């Protein structure tokens, strides 16, 4: 081993796990081998996301054998995003590398990620150009999602879903992760003014078990795309987002009421009542959006998205 347990690690490898007992020891051996070749202090942070197949027991054994291994255990399965967030929070290294625990990522690509990071980038994303997954249920939905994410967020990464990524800890620890947000880390890091790069990495067929994801995740991803767009595009301009929706609703409300007024002589009383009710409801919805925009502006100025805080963080980074 290249570093002792007492040394503060420079590199932290974060690996979320869910029912991966067959993959765990081969993964540990290959990751350790690659990290030893780096000749830099490192640690491996395994996050057991509520496994029920004996993964926890193997992790305890590995931790007892190797003090460079840190284990975080969830009481139940919370999902990959929560597991990655917990791993990032517990990682001590200046550089954090995330990867899957199913042996589909190649640990030998770690030096390539680090070399790209050393060029001055803050986030380096892996691109599984020759992805070894089923086309219709995995690759095609991923291609469509990556295109949509690129168009919506403006961060055009070929493979947002690849877990093999390298980050500067000072950047990734400032990114809020929840839901399925691990797919949108490149876009979310733009909030921290991150410099993003992408490199081609290897990808292997799954050797053990089966994928934890299916076509049913599409709806959740679509909802998270809307959330990411709001965060990246309107977090510091809440009134702009809600003002746009308010203007649209109020315009429709006035238009409906104007039509009702112009055709009042030819409408039955019931029809006129329905038209004016719809118009008033749209006007009320517009006022409601304005109120939400005001609340958003107040929250932004006192919370994590305060412009003053962003300026200070940017100045501190430029000063290093």
Describe this structure in words.
Helix content is about 50%, strand content about 10%. With about 325 residues, it is of the alpha/beta class. It folds into two domains: about 10-235, Spore Coat Polysaccharide Biosynthesis Protein SpsA, Chain A (Alpha-Beta Complex), CATH 3.90.550; about 240-320. Helix 1 runs parallel beside helix 2 (about 55-65) and helix 9 (about 240-260) runs antiparallel to helix 10. The two termini are about 30 Å apart. Residues about 305-320 have low confidence and may be disordered.
Q: Classify the beta-strand content into a percent band.
A: 5-15%
Number of H/I helices: 11
**Which regions are unreliable across 5 or more consecutive residues at pLDDT < 50?**
305-320
CATH class of the largest domain: Alpha Beta
Number of strands: 7
Report the order of strands and helices. Answer: EHEHEHEHEHEHHEHHHH
Question: Could you give a short description of this structure?
Answer:
The chain contains eleven helices and seven strands.
What are the defining features of this structure?
320 residues; alpha/beta; Spore Coat Polysaccharide Biosynthesis Protein SpsA, Chain A; 2 domains; elongated
How do the strands and helices of this protein lay out in sequence?
Blueprint lengths: L10 E7 L3 H18 L3 E7 L6 H11 L3 E5 L6 H11 L4 E4 L11 H8 L5 E5 L7 H19 L11 E4 H4 L12 H4 L7 E5 L17 H17 L3 H25 L6 H34 L4 H12 L2
Parallel strand pairs: 1-2, 1-4, 2-3, 5-7
Antiparallel strand pairs: 4-6, 5-6
Helix pairs in contact: 1-2, 5-8, 9-10
């Amino acid at each position: 081993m290249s570093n002792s347990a007492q040394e503060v690690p420079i590199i932290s490898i974060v690996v979320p796990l869910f029912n991966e007992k067959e993959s765990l020891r081969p993964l540990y051996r290959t990751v350790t081998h690659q990290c030893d070749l780096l000749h830099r202090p490192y640690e491996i942070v395994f996050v057991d996301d509520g496994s029920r197949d004996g993964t926890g027991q193997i992790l305890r054994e590995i931790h007892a054998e190797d003090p460079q291994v840190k284990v975080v255990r969830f009481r139940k399965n919370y999902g990959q995003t929560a597991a990655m967030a917990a791993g990032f929070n517990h990682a001590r290294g200046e550089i954090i590398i995330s990867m899957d625990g199913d042996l589909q990522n190649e640990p030998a690509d770690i030096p390539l990620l680090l070399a790209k990071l050393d060029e001055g980038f803050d986030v380096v994303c892996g691109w599984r150009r020759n992805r070894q997954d089923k086309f219709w249920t995995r690759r095609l939905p991923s291609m469509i999602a990556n295109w949509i994410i690129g168009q919506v967020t403006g961060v055009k990464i070929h493979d947002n879903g690849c877990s093999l990524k390298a980050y500067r800890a000072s950047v990734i620890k400032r990114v809020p992760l929840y839901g399925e947000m691990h797919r949108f880390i490149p876009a979310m890091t733009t909030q921290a003014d991150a410099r993003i790069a992408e490199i081609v990495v290897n990808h292997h067929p799954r050797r053990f078990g089966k994928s934890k994801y299916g076509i049913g995740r599409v709806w959740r991803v679509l909802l998270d795309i809307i959330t990411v767009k709001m965060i990246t595009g309107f977090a510091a301009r809440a009134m702009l987002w809600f003002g746009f929706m308010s203007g649209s609703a109020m315009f429709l409300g006035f238009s409906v009421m104007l039509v009702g007024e112009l055709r009042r002589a030819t409408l039955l009383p019931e029809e006129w009542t329905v038209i004016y009710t719809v118009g008033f409801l749209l006007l009320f919805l517009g006022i409601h959006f304005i109120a939400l925009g005001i609340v958003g502006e107040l929250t932004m100025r006192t919370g994590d998205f305060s412009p003053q805080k962003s300026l200070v963080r940017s100045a501190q980074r430029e000063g290093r």
